[in-house]
Amino acid sequence: MLVVALALFDQEGRVLLQQRPPGKHHGGMWEFPGGKVEVSEKPVKALIREIAEELGLELDAAMLEPAFFAEEGTDPAIVLNLYTSRQPVGEPRALEGQDWGWFSLAQAAALPLAPMDRKLLSRFAG
Ligand SMILES: Nc1nc2c([nH]c(=O)n2[C@H]2C[C@H](O)[C@@H](COP(=O)(O)OP(=O)(O)OP(=O)(O)O)O2)c(=O)[nH]1
After folding, report:
1. Which residues contact 52 (CB under 8 A, 6 or more apart)?
2. Cα separation, 9 vs 67, whole angstroms
3. For residue 73, which atom of ligand 1 is closest to its CA?
4. Are the C-beta atoms of residues 29 and 112 closer than 8 Å to each other?
5. Tens place of pLDDT for every residue, the chain, 126 residues?
6. Which of 12, 28, 36, 116 has the smallest number of CB atoms closer than 10 Å to its CB?
7. Atom 25 in ligand 1: residue holding the nearest Cα
């Protein structure tokens, strides 16, 4: 299964993270926004769709830079492709009622993160 997610940075170098709803897989843990790529869907299009659904932000493919990936599990194996964007995108709105925020990399690392998101975050910290 392919999942796409976005590390969106603001002008202060903080990254946007959101909290997974309670009751879902990894409920209550923090993650980069994104979601599953549908069959026959181009991954970058899936990411643009998910960001619009979750945060009300209209992104353009040209704003998205492929960054890192992580993988875990079997049956199904999950591959998470992370993109970055550092361009101003307007004010996010939590359209699915989720908590979200801008975090420095140190603040982000102190949150309870979903496992693949933690691995990906550590790539930015160098
Ligand atoms: N971001 C993230 N997702 C993970 C991790 N481990 C893991 O199994 N997943 C799964 C949970 C979800 O099935 C999927 C992420 O896609 P999603 O955000 O659209 O999932 P969802 O829970 O909203 O949707 P659903 O499973 O209820 O259909 O990847 C992880 O470490 N980080």
Report:
1. 58, 59
2. 13
3. 8
4. yes
5. 999 999 999 999 999 999 999 999 999 999 999 999 999 999 999 999 999 999 999 999 999 999 999 999 999 999 999 999 999 999 999 999 999 999 999 999 999 999 999 999 999 975
6. 12
7. 24
- With a 6 Å cutoff on the Cβ, whether 43 touches ligand 1 is no
Q: What is the DSSP letter of 108?
A: H
Q: Please, are residues 98 and 16 in contact by the beta-carbon 8 Å criterion? A: no
Q: What is the DSSP string of 22-64?
A: TTSTTTT-EE-SEEEPPTT--HHHHHHHHHHHHH-----GGG-
Question: Measured between alpha carbons, how far is residue 66 from residues 3, 7, 8, 82, 107 in Å?
Answer: 13, 10, 12, 6, 23
| Mutate-to-test residue for ligand 1 from 78, 100, 120, 121, highest number of ligand atoms within 8 A of CB | 78
Quick one: tokens of 106?
A: 């140190």
pTM: 0.95
